[in-house]
Amino acid sequence: MFAVRAARSARLLRRAFTTGSTNGFVGAIGNTPLIHLKTLSEKTGCTILGKAEFQNPGGSVKDRAALGVVRDAEERGLLKAGGTVVEGTAGNTGIGLAHVCRARGYRCVIFMPNTQSQEKIDLLRMLGAEVYPVPAVAFENPANYNHQAREFAEKLDNAVWTNQFDNTSNARAHYETTGPEIWEQTNGQLDAFVCATGTGGTLAGTGKFLKEKSGGKTQIWLADPPGSVLTSYISSGGKLTERSGSSITEGIGQGRITDNLATFVNDIDGAFTVPDEASISMLYQLLDNEGVYLGASSALNVAAAVELAGRLGKGKTIVTMLCDGAYRYQSRLFSKKWLETKGLTSAIPEHLKKYAVLD
Ligand SMILES: Cc1ncc(COP(=O)(O)O)c(C=O)c1O
To answer: Which of 100, 136, 171, 185 could bond 204 through an S-S bridge, CB–CB 3.0 to 4.6 Å?
Structure first.
């Protein structure tokens, strides 16, 4: 009797877990919520919406790119069962790839500059990746981590260097998923999309889809951190690549037009730079007013959406990306000492300084 009952409850439990289930880790990537940012919408008279990419199973927008480049390698026959995926990355792409590789049975090898935090190295190793920290040298130097990743893959059979910056299957992943999701979630009623770029995959892929689908009506804007050349490039119609300053944001800002960005750069409606002071202030405001705990690139994106609301006028709907949570950066972003060394303490409104709880 007990055995029969146990078998029945196991069957019911299995059914409960399979009803509405996803196809493993990769099936859980994407379809993230679009969050209405109430306070900022009221303040600007626009509808400001943030795509909650921190809800991806690997914790960031880069899960989409990771799956995109791996799928592409599989489809092109470059990667077969038991193969090796190699990438040069210091951040979220590595984490996404490590997850996707475990889920698909591939070996994952990551090259990164040896200036990166031990936490990042530890996390990648915990996710089963092999990590090689190498000297932090310029791209022109053959010892740069990207070149080492490529050479490592070239020496192996059944291995691929996924090359996130110039492999356009990264942008394609956003064209096929992020763009359509946003279009559907807004019923096609969006006036503008804005975000910062690292590889450019998110902006190029999502932007291209939204531009095409809206018949050119949806404006696509690029938001840049200080130290990036893209605002200068886009604002000058491709003539200049000036840069000034540097930024505390991670994963964004670029010194060149990557192949991913090149697929869309001429169709971007405009670009502007968001100072770190505005990003850090927004990060704390989003926590206090909306209850969302975000990394600095997301805070920059929301600050950019607010700036764009001012430029486009009231009544518009503006979408941006909430790329990842603050968990990977909290020892910096919520540290009084770190904020002081970066000269950012005064950027945080007085009543929000209570959130900087770390010394
Ligand atoms: C936290 C974060 N935000 C934004 C981006 C930029 O996305 P993309 O590479 O698609 O331009 C990245 C890229 O690594 C990132 O890690």
So the answer is: 171
Domain boundary among 165, 191, 207: 165
d(CA 214, CA 70): 30
Q: Which atom of ligand 1 is nearest to the CA of 170?
A: 10
Dihedral over Cα of 226, 177, 307, 240: its sign = positive
Q: Is the same domain home to 124 and 157?
A: yes
Catalytic residue among 62, 208, 211, 316: 62
Are 203 and 248 contained in the same domain?
A: yes
pLDDT in tens, 49-80: 999 999 999 999 999 999 999 999 999 999 99
Q: Per-residue pLDDT tens for 311-346?
A: 999 999 999 999 999 998 999 999 999 999 999 999
Q: Which two tokens stand for residue 252?
A: 């964004």
Is residue 16 included in any domain, yes or no? no
pTM of this structure: 0.93
Identify the domain containing residue 311 by its residue range: 25-57+178-344
Query: Is 62 among the residues known to form the active site?
Result: yes
